[in-house]
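Try this one yourself first.
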């Protein structure tokens, strides 16, 4: 039997007393016995882009990830039974590693659920289980971009991904960030499926980890989010599935554009002309033009039959910039899937 990973808020006694009440307008969900969260993982102080979403003083409802300074990616089923309008005014994003002592709490201005979302029901695993939440102000934490290009089985199956979430661990503690390295066992048309038996320490995701990121370490050492935590078996000891971002990338990009006025991450992250070549930009990044050494320019000017001045006068030096521009324009660029730039928050450790 499978379950969605929603519902670990209020599980940590350190955040709640028996007489605590939910924020006005939020119904009591019955507070069922808490299931396990990221099991057999490790306490996590890194990955600042992986945030918890919940109520101040009450704890984590779901996990999520910063994909831009103002857009947070999570699971659609985190709003099941309540809806966006009922939850968003009361929720915050917890930054840091412990919801009882967060480094910051970020307020939301709104949210949107994928219009094609269908929840898990019986043997139907559901689909399009993603939502985005919009922050009132830019987050200071470095975001991690998400996979937009189609994944193929030969590049995904057998690969290791890093799951980060705020759910309960195997000892019953919640509201702290944990991580685990999982192996992709199957590239489902909708999900990345992982089996506990194939993971180190039989780690896996579970309740409260809903909406959290599965990061992949790219060839250049940076992180890229491949999936969003979605479901697991009821014991959290057999298998789990996370929604592939490449299958819902068009809708996520639409939401990014609504918030930022563009879907070009190089524009969002101010990466044009920052001194670092970003080959995935929507427009040509001038930083990707190779500078020519001075001796190369002089050699080109002195070449026999070049038809240019060799004195460094106006005609000789006008050739160099034009040659550089022509060379740059002739380069072929394949979009890359690495995250925005290497930094403490986006570099694999």
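Now uncover the answer:
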């Amino acid at each position: 039997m499978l379950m969605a990973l929603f519902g670990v808020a209020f599980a940590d006694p350190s955040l709640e007393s028996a007489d605590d009440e939910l924020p006005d307008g939020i119904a009591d969900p019955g507070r069922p016995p808490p299931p396990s969260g990221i099991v057999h993982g490790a306490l996590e102080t890194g990955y600042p882009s992986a945030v918890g979403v919940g109520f101040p003083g009450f704890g984590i409802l779901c996990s999520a990830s910063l994909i831009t300074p103002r857009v947070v990616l999570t699971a659609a089923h985190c709003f099941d039974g309540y809806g966006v309008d009922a939850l968003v005014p009361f929720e915050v994003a917890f930054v840091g590693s412990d919801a009882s002592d967060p480094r910051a709490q970020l307020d939301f201005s709104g949210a949107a659920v994928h219009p094609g979302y269908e929840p898990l029901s019986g043997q139907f695993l559901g689909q399009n289980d993603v939502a985005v939440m919009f922050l009132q102000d830019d987050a200071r934490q470095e975001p991690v971009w998400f996979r937009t290009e189609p994944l193929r089985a030969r590049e995904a199956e057998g690969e290791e991904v890093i799951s980060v979430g705020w759910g309960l661990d195997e000892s019953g503690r919640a509201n702290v960030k944990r991580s685990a390295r999982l192996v992709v066992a199957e590239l489902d048309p909708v999900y990345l499926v992982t089996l506990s038996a194939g993971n180190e320490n039989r780690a896996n995701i579970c309740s409260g980890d809903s909406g959290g990121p599965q990061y992949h370490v790219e060839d250049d050492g940076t992180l890229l989010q491949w999936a969003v935590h979605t479901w697991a078996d009821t014991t959290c000891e057999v298998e789990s599935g996370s929604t592939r971002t490449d299958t819902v990338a068009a809708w996520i990009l639409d939401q990014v554009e609504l918030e930022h006025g563009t879907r070009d991450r190089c524009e969002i992250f101010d990466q044009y002309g920052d001194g670092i070549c970003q080959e995935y930009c929507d427009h040509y990044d001038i930083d990707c033009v190779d500078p020519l050494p001075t001796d190369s320019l002089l050699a080109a000017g002195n070449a026999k039959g070049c038809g240019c001045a060799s004195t460094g006068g106006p005609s000789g030096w006008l050739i160099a910039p034009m040659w550089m521009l022509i060379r740059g324009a002739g380069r072929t660029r394949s979009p890359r899937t690495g995250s925005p730039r290497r930094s403490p928050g986006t570099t694999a450790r």
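Discussion: The helical segments are 84-87, 153-156, 249-260, 265-268, 294-302, 314-329. The two ends are 35 Å apart (CA to CA).
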